[in-house]
Amino acid sequence: MLYGIVAATTALLLAAVLAALLRAPALRLGLLDRRQRQRRVPLSGGAAVVLATCLVVVAGDRTGFAPLGEGMGTLLTAGAGVAALGLVADAWRLKTRFLLVGTAVAAAFVVPYGDTGVLAGVAAVGWIAGVALAFRALDHADGVAGTVGVVTAFGVAACAAAEVMDGLAVLLSVLAAALTGFLMHNWPPARVALGGCGAMFTGFLLAVAAVTTRAGQDATTGAGVLFALTAVAVADAALVVLARRTSGRPLLRRGPDHLAHRLRRLGLTPAGVTVTVGAAAFAGVLVGTLVHTGLLGARAVLWVAGGVVVVVLVLWRVRARVPGQVRGRRGPDVRVSREARTKHDARVGQDARGGHEVRASREDSPRHRVRSRRRSGALVQRPRESTESAEPVESPLRASPRMASSQVSGSLRVRNG
């Protein structure tokens, strides 16, 4: 008990200090994430969380105060490998398919096939990889991924403690403390971000720990518990997939259409969005933990599933600002579709090849119509003042008739005509 308090405090302070120290190197190396238009946030928080968690846990295991137990060393090594993969993605923008395959390979080494079975173990590998990428997607706004990670880590740690998995419970407690220290710099407005390194590390550890605690128990109830523990991440991923499929946009292309973006469109402040998402995560984690411990029936998970469906459908109706959208001065946003621009460019190209004069191309352009709406009513021609009956006014630049010609010489003489 005493070591748990000391370890959590150490991880919190160490993560806070490392996040501040690594901020300047991240700025120099260009490890940045652009948020809220031109505000750039360095991706140094993930490395701080990974280092703080690994150092504290390894120190406790080596000193003998908190032995990790069997399999925890492999889990920590696999998590560090996933964190390294996320760091590479932050630096060189790897494609999502490579991240998915790499995370699945790491998960294949830590899934307890003896307790889950082969088929359930393969399904668990896919679920772990999906949760890791879902947590990476949660890092789209200040404080969201860190808050959800802290709440989920405490819930999964409670499930592990109920199963007398002390080493796993200590690991998750240290992770929650490290994320809390990171949130000191990530609370809106954020000075550092979690990035793929910290987000994938967090999601990977939480997913593997949840699978480990449910291994060997009822598969249906276990699936419900796993869903409830990660309900916010699942809701965000489902919302993004639904919105991009229905609008015909690429599924893996980043865009401002996640949970936090749509909540901001409803008028919530950045801090209000973080608190709202954290409260939703706490509700799902609480239900999952109570179902795991037997204090609630398995049907309680259906309430979480219903809430996720309602939230996804309601937020799906909220218009998200997507690439190719122009915001006018007044009125709703006017979306300039790519199809309209493509047809317009093709028509202009055909007219140019045929030798015809292209005069109306600018008026037919969708962008010109948007600019016309912006300038409507802005340019009002002022009436010209009549100068026919006005008396001539002597200019102050004209030379005075009293000026003697001897005082002005050569080319400096001022003419009065």
Automatic annotation (TrEMBL):
Subcellular location: Cell membrane
Primary location: membrane
Mode of membrane association: Multi-pass membrane protein
Compositionally biased region (Basic and acidic residues): 330-367
MF terms (GO), sorted A to Z: transferase activity
Transmembrane segments: 6-29, 41-59, 71-89, 96-113, 119-137, 144-162, 168-185, 192-211, 223-245, 266-288, 300-320
Residue ranges, annotated region (Disordered): 327-417
Keywords, comma-separated and alphabetical: Cell membrane, Membrane, Transferase, Transmembrane, Transmembrane helix
Keyword Manganese listed: no
PANTHER family hit by this protein: PHOSPHO-N-ACETYLMURAMOYL-PENTAPEPTIDE-TRANSFERASE, UNDECAPRENYL-PHOSPHATE ALPHA-N-ACETYLGLUCOSAMINYL 1-PHOSPHATE TRANSFERASE
Name of the protein: Undecaprenyl/decaprenyl-phosphate alpha-N-acetylglucosaminyl 1-phosphate transferase
